[in-house]
Design a protein that fits this description.
Blueprint: H1 21-37, H2 44-53, H3 63-74, E1 77-81, E2 85-86, H4 87-95, E3 98-102, H5 119-126, H6 133-148, H7 151-166, E4 169-172, E5 175-178, H8 181-184, H9 187-195, E6 200-203, H10 206-210, E7 222-226, H11 231-235, H12 240-250, E8 272-273
Parallel strand pairs: 1-3, 4-7, 6-7
Antiparallel strand pairs: 2-8, 4-5
């Protein structure tokens, strides 16, 4: 099957992006299924954000409505962009409290999995936690650190983002819960991340995460666990630059997965960014 090429959706003069009934229905299928799957599995901070954003279940939310609520909660906004944008544009948006989000929605044939993030991943996976100050501050700080370092170091730093913002778990008084947007927007991985016996789960040690390679197109073989949401900010304190040097010195751990042909593995090259 030829790979579907997704095209960014442009807003009209009023900032409105128009979607077809078929696309609204795709959103509806995804959100109804995922809201069931996250019950009892997503962390409290995320569920609070879902309540605040109050996404419609019958149509793709209006971007303006999400921005109004995010602005009120943490001063953040979400910015519709093309699928993959240049790294510096990406980090400049984040550093200015704008979360870049793909503006297209996946096709039905890719309902369960697509390699590049679509608006369901961005809006449902990430935006609820952008109502949380600790998460929002981490995002901003992450971007500011990324703008200070080299492209190679940005790749290294991305591992921290990957194992927290995308695939992080968090410790709570009610046991382990899901924090990462890459998990919370995927039906299969929402079940797998907490219940499968296959993956490893270990407390988040920034140095260890910086030395852990990952693959983007499989269910993760290892998850890192945050002690609490405020641990996020301490991950990026001034020590981070020394930790990156040390991680480079010590080298990577052996991968916990089969290697993929180079071109599919996002990790080794910095072209554009999309999360
Ligand atoms: Fe993401």
């Amino acid at each position: 099957m030829t790979k579907h090429v997704y095209v960014a959706r442009e807003a009209d003069e009023n900032g409105e992006i128009h979607y077809s009934d078929h696309e609204h229905e795709t959103w509806s299928i995804l959100i109804k299924r995922q809201k069931e799957a996250i019950k009892g599995r997503a962390c409290e901070e995320y569920l609070k954000g879902i309540e605040i954003l109050d996404f419609p279940e019958d149509r793709i939310p209006r971007w303006q409505d999400i921005n109004e609520k995010l602005e009120k909660a943490t001063g953040w906004g979400v910015e519709p962009v093309a699928a993959v944008i240049p790294a510096l544009d990406f980090f400049n948006l984040l550093a200015n409290k704008k979360f870049p989000a793909a503006s297209f929605i996946r096709i039905r044939e890719e309902l369960d999995y697509l390699e590049e993030p679509d608006l369901f991943h961005e809006l449902f996976g990430h935006c609820p936690l952008l109502t949380n100050q600790a998460y929002a501050d981490f995002m901003e700080r992450y971007a500011k650190v990324a703008l200070k370092v080299s492209a190679k170091q940005r790749n290294q730093l991305f591992r921290l983002f990957w194992f927290t913002i995308e695939f992080g778990l968090i410790k709570t008084s009610e046991g382990l819960k899901i924090f990462g947007g890459g998990i919370l927007s995927s039906f299969e991985e929402t079940l797998y991340a907490l219940e499968s016996k296959v993956p490893e789960r270990q407390p988040l040690e920034p140095l260890t995460a910086l030395r852990t390679p990952f693959r983007i197109d499989i269910k993760q073989p290892v998850y890192f666990i945050l002690e609490n949401i405020n641990q996020l900010y301490s991950v990026l304190d001034d020590e981070i630059f020394n930790l990156m040097d040390k991680a480079k010195e010590l080298g990577d751990f052996p991968p916990k997965f089969e290697p993929k042909p180079k071109k599919k593995n996002l990790e080794n090259k910095e072209s554009g960014y999309a999360y």
